[in-house]
Amino acid sequence: RRASREGGVSGEGRGGGVVEGCLGGVGVGVLQLGIGSALIIVPALIVVRLIEIVTRNLNIAGSIFNAMENELFILLVFLILGAGYASNSHVRVDILRERFSPRRRAWVELVGIVLFVLPFGLVVLWYGSLLMTLSLEDGERAAIGFGLPVRWLLVGAVPYGVLLLMIAMGA
To answer: Which of 18, 32, 57, 121 has minimal CB crowding within 10 Å?
Structure first.
């Protein structure tokens, strides 16, 4: 009985059960993926921005670096979207939220997820996946791939990021 109170299969106690432990692990995984993505993309974004500034000042055509900067930023935003929710550092309307009881906060969160995030997320997943497939089939080129036909990775980051957000909200 004591082991179950410390987070065993029964779900009693501070640690929750097996299902809660798995969901918590998924949230941690989404958080780690977001942090790892940021650790790679932010330095790349800084380097690309510096190169773009230097090439512009030397009157060298550097439009590929401007496009690359935009693409890296899109990747960054969508790959850290779920991490923001998993770490509870996303934007909220705190003026109202701080006045609510914990129970009411949970209900507002649940209603917001069901009425807004879930339908929006499903639409983005559906159409984003279709657009990613079209981009792959057409061989669209991306600046971050230096003209290689990898734009589908960028287009696919949008539904993937929204999926990570939905997973983080479920965890």
So the answer is: 57
List all residues 6 or more positions away from 105 whose beta carbon is below 8 Å from its beta carbon.
97
Query: Are the beta carbons of 35 and 49 closer than 8 angstroms?
Result: no
Over the stretch 143-162, which tens digit does the pLDDT of each residue have?
A: 777 777 888 888 999 999 99
CA distances from 17 to 9, 119, 121 (A): 5, 29, 28
Residue 112 CA, distance from chain mean position: 18
Structure tokens at 138: 């057409």
Beta-bridge partner residues of 6: 13
3-class DSSP state of 11? coil
Tell me the sheet residues that pair with 55: none
pLDDT range class, residue 22, cuts 50, 70, 90: low
- Start-to-end C-alpha separation, the chain: 26
Instruction: Report pTM.
Output: 0.73
Rg of the chain over all Cα atoms, to the nearest angstrom: 21
Summarised one tens digit per residue, pLDDT across range 54-96 is 888 887 766 788 888 888 999 999 999 889 888 877 777 677 7
